[in-house]
Amino acid sequence: MVNGNKTGVGRTTEGLVLALASEFPEQIELVGHYFDFMNRKKNIEVPVASNIRYRRTVFIPGKVFNMLRRLGVWIPFELLAKERGDFHIFPSFIGWPSLFRTPSAPFIHDITYIDYPEYVNGPAQFDLKTIIPRTVRRAAFIITNSESSKQGILREYPTARKPIIVEHLPAVGAVFISKKKLLRAYKGWESRANTCCFSELWSHAKTWLGLSTHTKS
Fold it and tell me: CB-based burial of residue 86 (10 Å sphere; 0-12 exposed, 13-18 middle, 19+ buried)?
């Protein structure tokens, strides 16, 4: 059985979750949460490991919680995940408050939403610019994926004075592309000189996850 430390997580980056699960297979268990209104999500792809399990919110759409959050009405994460954790990790920028003031750490991948707002859609940009400052203030520390992202976070949130850990995400589910497809893609990029390419920030945009980890006895 599971007891002891628990960690809650917001919408997940698959590599980070699987790295935690594989690095501590006997020490922790991750309990995931996602919105699945009326069981409409079929064949959903989520990180899978022996020490990962999931909880769902079925009767209320996730959009309701997100809209409430935009209006300043924050739902404690424990009410969503139905788990009380000892530490919360939010791997995709935005976190939730804790009913028990549980410490947390958000993974802020970059500050594209500030430096290149034209490449972030309206609702996402609004959420990131207005919600991340509160997420940062609640955080025990911040995780990011590069030194340049760290410097950007320090520049934009200088008063937070939170430790920032630079941690590169491991590759998960590598995809092999033929040389022919790569050349075709390159020619397309070359013809659009003003197009910037960014790593996919919303790879699971339709899947909002929360995770809790527990030390195992």
Answer: middle
- Between CA 92 and CA 63 the distance in angstroms is 17
Q: Considering only CA atoms, which of 81, 88, 85 is closest in space to residue 104?
A: 88
Q: Do the Cβ atoms of 25 and 52 come closer than 8 Å?
A: no
∠ CA(203), CA(116), CA(181), 5° rounding? 50
Asked if 212 contacts 6 with a C-beta cutoff of 8 angstroms, the reply is: yes
The token duo for 205 is 């945009």
Query: By C-alpha distance, which of 161, 152, 174, 210 is closest to 12?
Result: 210
Per residue in 131-183, pLDDT tens? Answer: 999 999 999 999 998 899 999 999 999 988 899 999 876 555 545 556 566 56
Calculate the CA 1 to chain-centre distance: 27
CA–CA gap between residue 200 and residue 13 (Å, rounded): 11
**With contact defined as beta carbons under 8 Å apart, do 194 and 202 qualify?**
no
In this predicted model, what pLDDT tens digit does every residue of 15-29 receive, in sequence order? 777 878 888 888 888
CA atoms of 160 and 154, how far apart (whole Å) = 8
Which of 196, 111, 119, 95 has its CA nearest to residue 145?
111
Count the neighbouring beta carbons within 10 Å of the beta carbon of residue 39. Answer: 8
Distance from CA of residue 115 to its chain's centroid? Answer: 20
Angle (CA) 130-131-133 rounded to 5° is 85
The answer to whether residues 169 and 16 touch, using CB atoms and an 8 Å cutoff, is yes
